[in-house]
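Quick note —
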Amino acid sequence: MRAPVIQSIASLKQLPVFPDDSTVSESPRLRKYNVVYGFNGCGKTTLSRVFACLGTGERHEDWAADSTYTVKFTDGTQVRTESLDAALKQRILVFNIDFIARKLRWKEGEANPIFYLGRDQKDLSEQIDKQGERAEVIDGRLRRVVSIRNGAEQAFVQHKRDRARLIESEVGLGRRYNATNLDSDYYNYTYEDPDLLDEDGIGAQRQLLKLDNPLPKLPRISEETHALNDVVHEVRNLLQTTLGTISIDALREHDAILPWIKDGLEYHKAHNLKSCLLCGNPLTDDRVSLIESAIGDRYDTLVNDVAATKQTAEVILDTLADSRSGLPSKNDVVKDQRTSFADAANALRSSIDDGRKHIERAIELLNKKQDSPNTQIVPGDLPELSDAHQWMSEYIERTKALNKVIDAHNVAHDDFTFNQNAAKGKLKKHYLAEGYERYRELALYVEKAERVEGALQNLRDELIANIAALKQQMRQHGPAADRVNTMIHRYLGHDELEIAAKNEGYEIRRNGKVTTAAPSEGEKTAIALSYFLVLLEADGRKREDLIVVMDDPISSLDTCSLNYACSLVKSLDNVAQLIILTHNSHVLNELKKWLRNRTEKEMEKRGRSKEDASAALLFIDTVQPHGNHSRRSRIVELPKHLREYESEYHYLFHMVLRFLDAEEDRTNYFFVMPNVLRKILEIFLAFKRPGSSGLSSKIEGLAREAEDIGIDQIRIRALDRLAHVESHGDNIDDLVTASSMTVEETTVAAESLLELVEMMDSEHSRRMHRQCQPAA
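Predicted structure written out below.
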């Protein structure tokens, strides 16, 4: 099966003269033999460098970082700047200025070696072939393994990325957790079944993580006993206490008036009154003594005791009320303690309510005692002393039970950060455990692929090293010098110049001595092209596998040398693909003769399929749009005026007609038009006014004959301006040189030139107009 060759250039972007894709469509299809013609500066060197990059696998050092290209091959593959194909290396050889600068050093008179495989070492050659075949098999296996390994790595990377994002999101680790962290965790992780949580376990940990801040700590409930038993005991005693026998019967019958009488007696004594202010009766000493004995100190003591006991009871009542209202809500407690808290708080409230009822009953009885101090009062439903003791014990236990829950809540508050971190740890372990088996499976798959790849790579490296060692035993660069010299001598027509093997290279000699001066341009061309053609078969290369690109291989040669050089180029008909880039019209004509009958157009003329075509004749069309400082080139079919005629005169005449015909796009070709006009004028006058005088002299002569010719002298002066401004334009190479003439001047000069041709040779003008119409 033949190796694929270049089918077309799909895109060129940000390359010299090819600024962007907007004006550059895919090139016409390339064939086995291809000639690309273009003026200097149109982009031929850029194209040759694109092809050279395909052969070296490297970006050209002078290109910008955003310079890109895409090249299509006949097998359907596309090679881009960022995806150079290693299989193309050594298949594509490019002859251009970079090649010459890299291989030939004119100042030193030296050249790089061209290595041939020795013909007398058959056994070594067979070993090289066998090991080369093995290396190709290994390469195929290696490519497959690399593809498998890449797929496994991509799956592994994606799994790690997805698992890390899941952990990052679910555990709340922020952007601090990534695939690298996951690798580290799995490296230190030992899988355990308990790490996997059920739905409830996951929910509990998530709930804890949702809390932004811990609930506040709660104060403990006072465990004070309130001495309810003492109050009950005192109240029962007071309710049964009386003042004993009272001397005055009236007072005995009206017990409630005793406090009033006591206060009145104290008033009369204080004011030394001898008669009662209420009744007017005498207040004798005997009467005062009788009243004092009736109410005495025991009364004060009893009243004071009742008041004091009542005050104590009221304090206890207020304390119990405050305790009840001060109990926290269950919503103030951490969630896992709320049930226990509710049970304990309800029990304590019940005790508080019972205690309040007991105290309230005691206060009611004390109020009655205060109203009738000397009357015994039945306790009724006041609790027994044993019941009071039981209440107190129950109250204390229930207070302690509630405080235990509060203590647990406060501990949870203190441990909130610890608990949240623990929840994160549990969730993280859960998701690590959940993805553990898949992680190990993918990791082992990648590891296995890497081992196989490494083993194949080592085997391949060993084979390549063996092949290189065998080749080193066979490599000889001396014989190549004879072949190069044979070509050089035929090229130049003399044998003064030659190359000779020296160490690991060559030296350039003239008349048997090392050159002390650089060869002429023609000699350089002869040496460089001969060197390149011999290099095609070096290092065991086979011509039928090669894609050969040559950028202006022939220049500065006389006619004889040029014809021989063209013959050498045409001898490359056995390579896989040949691409010639040239600006030389003579070379174009020679190659057209060779290839014209193999083009698509010729196949169509013969009624055959385009696919039968083996040659393509192409042109690099370069314009400079109005208002734009840079030129833009595109690859098109060779225009018919260059394709069908051997002289460039026809195409230049066509350009002038096109320039004048295209009103809006006239400036596109303005940058070349002054030189085109001068070139046409030189060629035309060379036939019409033969002689050794220069163009300016011929125009002066025409100016003197203007009246006889029938052309206005103003028109002749326009051509005279052209002759002086473009005095340097002696060949087609200068067609891309910027001119100082304006568009208006150039337009007048173009019209004047066509008018001059018409006046001097109407038949010639008519035929040229017919053959070179812009629409053709």
